[in-house]
Amino acid sequence: MVDGGWCVYSGSPAFAPDKPLDDARARQLYNRQLKVSRTTLVKHFKSAELPDAFAHPLLRNCYPLPLHDGRYVAGGLKLTLSKLLGLVYEPADERKEGTA
To answer: Per-residue pLDDT tens for 44-60?
Structure first.
């Protein structure tokens, strides 16, 4: 996520997620997809409303993971995209002090 929309790669031109994509941009997104099977992740992203950009036929079975500063934190999920490790996930809710 960047000012003015989303981008495929850091530093690439932004696009508006609420508008249909051209074939070239849809292909870029399709080529960046990650396949995950962790049930909590799949349920979380399937339950969210898809932006209009993902109505493109190439993206019909894809769900967006909008990263802000390389992170996604929402719905009890904390995800980071690492060049070395790939998709790293951990609990978003930290334990409160004084609890066992």
So the answer is: 899 989 999 999 999 98
